Each structure stands twice: as structure tokens, then as C-alpha cells.
Amino acid sequence: MEQRTFQKYSNDFNFVGYPLYYVVESSYGTQLMCSDCCTEEYTGEETIKVDANYDDHQLHCHVCSDKIEAAYEEDDESEEDSEYA
Known about the structure:
Blueprint: E1 9-12, E2 15-26, E3 29-33, H1 35-41, E4 47-52
Antiparallel strand pairs: 1-2, 2-3, 2-4
């Protein structure tokens, strides 16, 4: 079994510090995972896609149910209340 550690934050050039989540496709189906669960559950048999969570404040890991951090803060002001709308 290949041991991998999946990053919690992006580390690519000009793309540093964004919170990451993993879409894991296996014989059990498709699951969205945080970096810790992806590292623990990885067997080498899965197809894994990674993406940054920019602004989904309701994104949770399907394994541990922890909330996956969003890169940008939630906007409390609705568009109709904005002075620029």
C-alpha cells in the first residue's frame, strides 16, 4: 500500500493557502473528504480529485462530519441591502 499525506491547504505557485477538499471515488461510491480523512482512508485503489473551497460555508467531510474551511468569509449583507445593487 502506498502511503500518501494529503494537504489541508494549497501550496502551488500563485495559489498558496486555499483550503482543500478531496472527492474520492472508490468501489463504495463517491465521498467528499477533508485532508485528514483522505490521508487515513487512502488505500491506492481510489480515484482522487482535489479542489479548493473558496466560499462554500456548508461544506462538510462525509467521513468525520467536520466543516471544511472556506477561503473567503461569509458575506452577511444580502445583495438587496447593498448600496451598490
